[in-house]
């Protein structure tokens, strides 16, 4: 597959294709598609998905580990809040209610993370790839490091919740 895609790519592609397929220099070549997980729901009953299993952002976001850690914190906070005997939130099944609320709280952040990487920054058409590569190539040639502030933006319209229930657990 890769040999067909890159056969006319120019530069050193024939050398790489030959090394990959013919001359035995590479006996364990491995490749995998870049993917992003977008599920409609992250839980069912009392079972929840977390991190990459629930909302794996594209590697282009640079947010895989961060969103997983934030997700674990929100999930722990919601379960602790909803199963707290003092508050009795969630009715007959507080865990299922906590999982629903975990998703309601976290999904807006994850949508922003995933949407940031789509479009121009992760082109999906041949023309989009040409435009993207040309843009990045020109920026690199001109040493325009100011592009980083657009690529690596940190402003999101989301606030990390605080969980008093988790603070109480630390004190015990």
TrEMBL record:
Protein name: FAD-binding domain-containing protein
Entries under InterPro entries matching the protein: FAD-bd, FAD/NAD-bd_sf, FAD_aromatic-hydroxylase
Species name: Talaromyces rugulosus
PANTHER family documented for this protein: MONOOXYGENASE, PUTATIVE (AFU_ORTHOLOGUE AFUA_8G07040)-RELATED, OXIDOREDUCTASE-RELATED
Domain of life (superkingdom): Eukaryota
Domain FAD-binding span(s) in chain numbering: 29-82
Keyword terms of this UniProt record: FAD, Flavoprotein, Oxidoreductase
One GO molecular-function entry: oxidoreductase activity
């Amino acid at each position: 597959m890769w040999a067909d895609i890159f056969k006319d790519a120019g530069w050193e592609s024939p050398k790489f294709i030959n090394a990959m397929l013919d001359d035995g220099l590479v006996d364990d070549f491995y490749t995998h598609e870049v993917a992003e997980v977008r599920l409609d729901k992250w839980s069912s009953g009392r079972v929840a998905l977390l991190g990459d299993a629930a909302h794996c952002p594209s590697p282009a976001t640079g947010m895989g580990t961060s969103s997983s850690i934030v997700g674990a914190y929100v999930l722990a906070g919601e379960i602790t809040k909803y199963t707290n005997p003092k508050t009795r939130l969630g009715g007959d099944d507080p865990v299922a209610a906590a999982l629903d609320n975990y998703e309601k709280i976290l999904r807006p952040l994850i949508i922003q993370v995933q949407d940031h990487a789509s479009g121009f920054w992760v082109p999906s058409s041949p023309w989009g790839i040409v435009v993207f590569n040309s843009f990045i190539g020109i920026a690199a040639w001109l040493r325009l490091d100011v592009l980083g502030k657009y690529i690596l933006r940190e402003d999101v319209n989301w606030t990390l919740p605080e969980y008093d229930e988790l603070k109480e657990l630390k004190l015990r």
